[in-house]
Prior knowledge:
alpha/beta, Rossmann fold, four-stranded parallel beta sheet, 13 strands, 23% strand
Amino acid sequence: MRGVGHSDAIESVTFRHEEGNEGEKIGVKRGNEGLFGVKLLKRQGQLSALSGQAVSFWRLAPVSPASIKWLTLPSPKKETPAQMQTLGIIGGIAPESTVEYYRLIIASYRRQTADGSYPPLLINSIDLTKLLGLVAAARLPEVTEYLLAELQKLARAGADLALLASNTPHIVFDDLERQSPIPLISIVECACQQAKSLGLKKVGLFGTRFTMQAKFYPAVFAREGIAVVTPDPADQDYIHTKYMDELINATFLPETRAGLLAIVERLKKQADIQGVLLGGTELPLILRDNGGTGIPFLDTSRIHAESAVARILE
């Protein structure tokens, strides 16, 4: 059966329908939802302009969905990319982890949809040196202003929601979220929910010095009763130096990995941590497993990316 549907204001319409008897009531539904029902009033034979063969059309009148013969339509598929929200990404902070974010988002999306499509994404790669300079100088209002301007670019380009592909700029996340033209997905909130789901009550935090010494991770995790522990000052210096001199430049050395794992072991012994937050988006690139430490490493990049895919598929 093909043709047009009806509304209550339409008395009758013409449908092409090859099989049926006058007076028969038929209808269309999807799943258990009745879309419309009609009664076959009068059969009309016509010649097809294309084939020259006779085809049958019926005059139809709307009827109640009750007691009719249903023709079932397939259930609707998941939204297509054109119908989905477009995700905006503030990247370049640092470039290597932005590449990893892209890979993670694509992989997560394709696992969840399995239809061969790709998600709609916009990436705004910003100046890492400028951002870190502002953060190091504690010029946080300017950090907010800078990131807000870059988010506005994403919004103008068509992004419906966005994320910051880095932990450090979350130091101004609350101010940024209040002013952003589009909703933001917090890496800290996503990581907190993951830690909660694992039943963790005390976690270590690795990242840049700015991230380890800021309050944005402890404040969010405290709301869920999870303590955040940072390494001692000497270990923080080691992590920060390796991060800035090596990791953001895509240099991943086995001796640096060994040094980071040694800090994990010290935190386990000193603070009895139950897991480690890889609170720098380059850290998972060198700590792709827990190195036999016996506790989970929370890859905040992966958690963030998978949460973002879940949002655009809602």
